[in-house]
Amino acid sequence: MPDPRRLRIDVGPFQLDPDAEAPTWTATGSRAAGGTVTGGWSDWVAFAQRVLQADALWREREARGDAWDQGHAASGAPDAVNPYR
Asked: Per the record, which residues fall in region Disordered (predicted)?
């Protein structure tokens, strides 16, 4: 049975391919964006953590914007500008 840590990982628009001679992984895009990025497994884990943090921040801002929109609709002020959008 092959080692599952050495198999390709497909993640939406890109994939991570393990390098045969080194303990690194290379990210390649499914679209020709020009170039590849190589890093160790810990680099990719840190990247995934940053993506999750950015996603959480975006979701929080969206929730604040939605709450502001609901409050604005209740107030009836026609000239208010949503600072979260």
From this structure: 1-31, 62-85
Write the pLDDT tens digit of every residue in 63-83: 888 887 777 777 767 777 666
Contact 42, 58 (CB under 8 A): no
Residues forming a β-bridge with 11: 14
Q: Are 56 and 46 in contact (CB under 8 A)?
A: no
Give residue for tokens 């170039």.
35
- State the Cα–Cα distance between residues 67 and 4, nearest whole angstrom: 45
**Helices in 30-80 by DSSP H: which ranges?**
41-75
In this structure, what token pair is assigned to residue 6?
A: 């050495």
Model pLDDT for residues 19-28, shown as the tens digit of each residue: 877 788 888 8
